[in-house]
Amino acid sequence: MDSRLIMWIHPFIQVVATLAGFVAMYWGVRRFQMVHLKQKVPFPWKQHVRLGSFALCIWTLGLGIGLLAAHQGWGSIMVTDIHYMVGFAVAPLCVTAYITGTIMDKRKKKRTVLNVVHGVNNLLLCLLICVQVVTGVWVIKVFLIY
Ligand code: HEM
Ligand code: HEM
């Protein structure tokens, strides 16, 4: 495959994962309102789990694909400064999100700690993803469109 085309795979799948992840976050905020603020709002449990798992999986896979594409296209990795550094920080947050989410999904009960750990971890995760979108667009402008 043309290496110029390969370079577009990572940004494309990461944007798709980001859309899914932010919908999962929207539902997560609903759950927060329901549990902590005692508001009567719906929380589509299954869809949250499905869409959240999809986003976490693609963000993590996409990290590897970004590195592979950088190696293929530029012959070198870790050249994008903040973008790759924040990218590495995203990985452990995805793992924590998945583990805490899976435990809560498999054993349903009233929770006070794990749901907060999951929520805070994922809030930080989504903030870092926003950084990735901004710096990713910068990488596209500087390195891909020339
Ligand atoms: C992009 C990924 C995700 C985001 C942004 C996210 C966000 C959130 C947030 C903000 C909450 C509310 C926490 C609270 O009430 O304090 C929540 C709850 C929950 N999440 Fe996620 N989540 C994600 C992925 C997942 C995954 C992959 C799973 C399961 C495999 C999962 C399972 C759950 C469950 C079961 C709850 C309800 C917990 C309870 O109240 O007992 N989440 N999520
Ligand atoms: C959401 C929008 C994103 C955009 C537009 C974007 C854009 C890019 C671009 C254009 C590259 C250059 C290599 C290539 O074209 O494949 C790249 C590399 C990379 N990206 Fe992203 N990215 C995004 C999200 C992410 C996320 C969420 C992560 C981490 C989970 C990530 C981690 C990386 C890494 C590790 C590299 C390799 C950089 C290097 O070796 O210097 N990116 N990204």
Overview in brief:
About 80% of the residues lie in helices and about 0% in strands. It is built from four helices and no strands.
Label the overall shape. Answer: elongated
E-strand count:
0
Q: Compute the separation of the termini in Å.
A: 20 Å
SS summary, helix count: 4
Rg calc = 17 Å
Mean pLDDT score: 96
Ligands, ions, cofactors: protoporphyrin IX containing FE
> Could you describe the largest sheet, including whether it forms a barrel?
none
* Low-confidence regions: none
- Tell me the domain tally: 1
Percentage of residues in helical conformation: over 70%
- The computed structural class is mainly alpha
Approximately what portion of the residues adopt beta-strand conformation?
under 5%
Give me the strand/helix succession. Answer: HHHH
How does the SSE layout of this entry go?
Blueprint: H1 3-36, H2 45-74, H3 82-106, H4 114-144
Helix pairs in contact: 1-2, 1-4, 2-3, 3-4
This protein binds protoporphyrin IX containing FE (2 copies).
Residues 21, 24-25, 28-29, 31-32, 35, 48-49, 52-53, 55-56, 97-98, 101-102, 104-105, 111, 115-116, 118-119, 122, 126 line the site of one protoporphyrin IX containing FE.
Description:
- This protein has 146 residues and is mainly α.
- It has one domain.
- The protein has four helices and no strands.
- The chain has helices at residues 3-36, 45-74, 82-106, 114-144.
- Helix 1 (3-36) packs antiparallel against helix 2 (45-74) and helix 3 packs antiparallel against helix 4 (114-144).
- The longest helix is centred in the first third of the chain and has 34 residues, at 3-36.
- The protein is elongated.
- The two termini are 20 Å apart.
- The model has no long low-confidence stretch (mean pLDDT 96).
- It binds protoporphyrin IX containing FE (2 copies).
